Amino acid sequence: MNAIIGKALHTPSEARYYFRTVNDKELARFSERPMTLIRRTVGDREAILGKARRAGYTLANYAFPRRIEERLSNLQTLGYLGEMPNRTQMVFGAVDMFRFFIVPCADDYYRSKEITFGFHTLLRFLDDPASLMDPTGLMSHRDVIIGHLMQVTHADPIYDLQLLHAIPDGLEELERQIEQMIAGTHPRQESIGAIIEDPEYHGRLLEHVREFRANPSKCKPLLRENVANNPHFGEIAETFGDLPSAIGYFASLPGNPIEALIRVLRVREFPSSRQAAANDVHSDVDVPLGTDMQAA
């Protein structure tokens, strides 16, 4: 690739220099055959054992939610959590996040890159199944969140940075692992390198993480191009793009499972008002797109 690989890149300018030397089509995601990419993301025996351990960690947290009480407490102390949604609200809030934002926004982005969204999702799953087991990230191991940030060019990384802020050494470890990815020395280099489709993403992410660590409250969004340039996705990102707004939205949903299910079946578009979308399960009218729902 380039001689700068193999040494740690400690400044954003070094990262930008390296990534300018790599053309999109030189990335493994565009240049290697599908079966080669699959083999790379599956990895060796040690990598598979690591995936199993991380998946087991997530499953244990689902089974025993008290395991994450310290993390939730830290999030509240940092001001990222207000009223905590119940389990029904969390589940159906995650459904809305997927159907209104994550899936359509990602599909739009990958089509612009001439990448098949389904196959890309398969590679992500093979790289780390746990990254697709926990839509909110609250149940995930630190390294699952970090790996997810590095394998996916995010619509806006701020949500995951806020999650890591509540985990001891989470942001410090994220910065260290991004530096490893840029230097070509990360343990999951082969696997993540088979997925990433933007040669400049890790350099931008490193700079963004350092800005967030310096002053979380004044860190500017790092929006993916199809979010920054698309008013529809940009508007929905105001609800789901950061942790306080997303959790606030979840908490506004019906807490009763039957009412929540009725709402999911009846509300087919991003709601025009939180009250109509989240709490009115008796309305027969689909709610139109395009109104700000950012949590207070």
Total count of domains: 1
Q: Can you tell me the overall shape?
A: globular
- By DSSP (H or I, 4+ residues per run), the number of helices equals 17
DSSP summary, beta strand count = 0
Radius of gyration (CA) equals 19 Å
Percentage of residues in strands: under 5%
Given helix and strand content, the structural type is: mainly alpha
Instruction: Name the helix and strand elements from N-terminus to C-terminus, one letter apiece.
Output: HHHHHHHHHHHHHHHHH
Q: How confident is the prediction overall: mean pLDDT?
A: 85
Largest β sheet strand count, sense and barrel closure? none
Uncertain regions: pLDDT < 50 for 5+ in a row?
A: 1-22, 273-296
Percent helix: 55-70%
CA-CA gap between termini: 47 Å
Describe this structure in words.
With 296 residues, this protein is an all-alpha fold. The chain has one domain. 60% of the residues lie in helices and 0% in strands. Helix 1 runs antiparallel to helix 12, helix 6 runs antiparallel to helix 14 and helix 10 runs antiparallel to helix 12. The chain is globular, with a radius of gyration of 19 Å. It starts with 11 loop residues before the first helix and ends in a 17-residue tail after the last helix. The N terminus and C terminus are likely disordered.
Layout of SSEs?
Blueprint: H1 12-20, H2 28-31, H3 34-42, H4 45-63, H5 69-77, H6 87-112, H7 117-127, H8 142-151, H9 158-165, H10 170-183, H11 189-193, H12 201-214, H13 225-228, H14 231-240, H15 243-252, H16 257-266, H17 274-279
Helix pairs in contact: 1-12, 3-7, 6-14, 6-15, 6-16, 8-10, 10-12
